[in-house]
Hints:
A: alpha+beta, Uridine Diphospho-n-acetylenolpyruvylglucosamine Reductase, domain 2, 3 domains, four-stranded antiparallel sheet, B: alpha+beta, Ubiquitin-like (UB roll)
Amino acid sequence: MYQFDYHRAQTVAEAAELLAANDENTLLAGGQTLIPTLKQRLAMPAKLIDIGNIADLNFIKAEGDAITIGAATKHADVAASPDVAKHLPALAHLAAHIGDPAVRNRGTIGGSLANNDPAADYPAAALGLDAKIHTNKRLIDADPYFTGMFETALEDDEIITEVTFPHPEKAAYVKFPNPASRYAMVGVFVAKTPIDIRVAVTGAGANGVFRVKEMEDALSSNWSPDAVTGIKVPEDDLLSDLHGAADYRSHLISVMAGRAVAATM
Amino acid sequence: MALVSMTVNGKPVSGEVEGRTLLVQFIRENLSLTGTHVGCDTSQCGACVIHMDGKAVKACTMLALQAEGSAITTIEGLAKGDDLHPVQKAFKENHGLQCGFCTPGMIMTAVDMIDRIPNLDEETVRAELEGNICRCTGYQNIVKSILDAAETTPA
Amino acid sequence: MSTTGIGQAVRRKEDKRFITGAGRYTDDLNRPGQTYAYFLRSPHAHAKINGIDLTEAVAAPGVVSIFTGSDVAADGLGGLICGWTVHSKDGSEMKAGAHPILAEDTVRYVGDHVAMVVAETYAQAKSAAELIVVDYNVLDAAADVGTAQDGSAPQVHAEAPSNTCFDWELGNKPETLAALKNAAHIVKLDLTNNRLIPNAMEPRAAIADYDSGTDEYTLWTTSQNPHVARLVLSAFVGVAPEHKLRVIAPDVGGGFGSKIFIYAEETACTWASAKIKRPIKWTAERSESFLSDAHGRDHVSHAELAVAEDGTFLGLHVQTKANLGAYLSTFASSVPTYLYGTLLSGQYALPAVYVEVDGVFTHTAPVDAYRGAGRPEATYLIERIVETAARELAFDPAELRRKNFIRTFPHQTPVIMNYDIGDYDACLDKALALVDYDGFPARKAEAESRGKKRGIGFSTYIEACGLAPSAAVGSLGAGVGLWESAEVQVAPTGKIEVFTGAHSHGQGHETTFAQLVCERIGVPIDDVEIIHGDTGRVQFGMGTYGSRSGSVGMSALAHALDKIEAKAKKIAAHLMEADAGDIELKDGVFTVAGTDKELAWAELALGAYTAHGFPTSEIEPGLKENAFYDPLNFTFPSGCHICEVEIDPDTGVTQIANFVAVDDFGVIVNPMIVEGQVQGGIAQGIGQALFEAAHYDETGQLITGSFMDYCMPRADDLPDFDLGFTQTDCPSNPMGMKGCGEAGAIASPPAVINAITDALGVRDIKMPATPARVWAALAAPSPSSD
């Protein structure tokens, strides 16, 4: 790692001020992606602003027909939350299968969404459930939030504070892990909310998480695995690597989508 | 340099560290507790697993300063004097280790797993070991050790 | 009966330190005033170095010194060596270029050593290395073993035209070719044995400390054979005189072959510690392990098996290209030749075998022994082609094997080996019973009803291990003898120290060697200490690899104990005023036959050192003996592994549904430890078959450079294995042991792939049979997938 300063922020306002003060300053939440990146000397921040201990960012709230989760809430806490289990079991399942148990004790939902790794799990839930991403400045809908691989609508000095998920009527997440890294090679989140039906895919897209309109339309008229297993996502926009070429990933999207729908039934 | 203080294996400790000093470096180099190992640089092997405030974490994927004020348990702090922890005993009894390098992380992960999950079965144990790699044992006796310890540990 | 003797599942003495965090591995050690080394490595697979500018780097904070190849050359150090000379068909010696410790004018693989930066901290050394400016003239690379011998391929070493180190042959060529010409059936198969990265969980490390007052060097390092390291560093590289160099391998976190070899890093640290007169510590990051630990396997082969109408095997012809990487590592040349070709007769009475192996240089990391070393490659080849023959000729795979089993011993194969003993039917029968072979069709049908494809695959393997005997390996080109030594020192209180040249890095020698002492002397196991891994304490030794520690190392201990017992009986006779021939030793007590006289072991030991009234012309005081043991033959463990897989056709995921292994290791000292060795070996073999592959792109960049891309088997990838044993005692050593460390890795890959090809109904699938490959095979069934 290169040299950097470390500062533990007590409030979001303090963190925001430090973040705005220098382009080279970076937020640190759980650090489960950032620290390995720093170890590889792939980033050279001036100061790490640790927001992991800010009490206002650590909570899970069930209010009305939505669940709101503070940005610094750990995956393990989401997985173990009775509220999440009751209203959004698909999200509890997703959180319980991110990384490994030790990673889940440190990694955060806000960190995952801010990083927007193309193989991360949370982006699929956020896009699949039409989550609202609250920041210290504004509220961003999931669709415009995800702008590409490792790219989001966040401005340089913007901090995610919490994420609101609506209670879906039906939802499920099924992933096919990369055999080596165990990140999602293909992860499909399907959801039926009072407003719409969504199918979000992570792990496979060349531009990060994406929705599959054709599957959503098919599910609108027929909520069954058969409705989606025959739909192929074109290979052109999919990742291709050592572990799975685009044709295989395309195939897996159909299979995982079918399994996700089946899991809701 | 900055001062960091925490409790390690029940003892208050502090030391001067850089911002970039990893928790595992602080434990191994400043405190000379070398039972916590480093087996990879991508947070996957789990040789560095310790407990922070009662939860299993990878000490190679945390800064020492992030642990400020926390209570840390390493493999050296698991036994009560000469009385081995039931998981330590089970690993010996069931030949759950060969070269011993992954063992501290395996044991710390196992203790966390047993504390957290009632009625462990083989499939759950294998899934919970996702973040711990062993090259020697083929995992069979590690799984057996954990299931054995889970049975003998009072809930 | 002793509860700590031979055959008992004694819990391991060494475990206490490992389960409490008190193990001491090389990186756990520190020396006062130590510095830290970081190695600047080539980012290119092949480049000329026009120049290295150190100006900025030497001025960086904390830098003590920076060394490059020109510094090494200026000191006249030799390069790293290969200790086994192989000859080509025309009788010429293998051809290889120099293997410098630090690159001189050319780098030959990504990870090749360009400079060593020594600084006050590791972070400072690493930062300073970023300031070194290397002027590279990047050249095309020969990264693929299949094409590296083409005329147009870039050359790795000028000394080895067409990148061919050797073209070696073994066997009876005319008979083999005649058999193939006349046979009713010829079964042909093209196979790839995938390249693996050992990945012992402890990365390699070294601390070198030079004492300027005594001119003595001490090197603590992650070695499976510290005496061999000392010999190479002194006699061949010339770092230090042998008597001034002490090499210590403390607790070592797994080896699997990768820590046999003498590498640039520990060599450079030892040499440079005298230059700067301070200790130097180096520990590999995992990413460096991927780049620079010697890799394993990497063969491309074509095989043809001649089979008579009735299923009798008549001859086998094998042509193999073996990747050696960019330089010849310590035992690289022996692995694809004498550890491979000599096993190609398998368990079968093959009258004719002819094997041709090209050893090929490529711009990739050196390739050397990895668990099994040559024998997995041989077993994969023969067990895959035999299974293919059974399918093509419509034989039951078990019965075709049985039809061709060797049943009389000793058996001379056409490829050097003289099998001393075995009972292949017994292993097969037991494995068939354990797997419930008769029930397989029902299990397959049941799987089908769940939408899964189930297959079964066999592997009836043989291996040669207990690597030794010296005369044999010497005649085949080894530069060393492969005996082992042991020394037994009895203290005046009766406590026993055993010094062995074998090295334990997971095998449990501190327990099993002590069991032999308990068996022979009858002392409590806690009164026995096994000391290993230190050239300053152990007289000499060849180390641990090739499943040799039991059959060779413990046999040496048995001989030393013979001498101890003989002398102790003389002393007992003197002390009890009896005839030495009447003295018996049982359970730690000496008795005189026909009397009630007795003497406890501790009393005897004290007597040996007080030596009062000894007839000193007949009995020297003290009780300490040593032995150097060289066996008569290799040992030949054998067995039968059967794998059942279930494949999900939707995803291509293969699950090991059932894995049965029945092995004949001869006498077993500790069944708990032996089972652990087999389980670990099978896991590595399944890793090769399903998960692991080192993948270089066409420019020679390693694509699988971390655990993110190199798939290590995890707990949830594997089932419990169902193990069984049969026993024919090895007649070639006093222990009756054969060796168990490698069998799992040798036997299991073909069993897995035979099961997958059975399930899929395809002729071949490349290892690792990843979900993507299996899915592709299902999507487009063809004679050869991928």
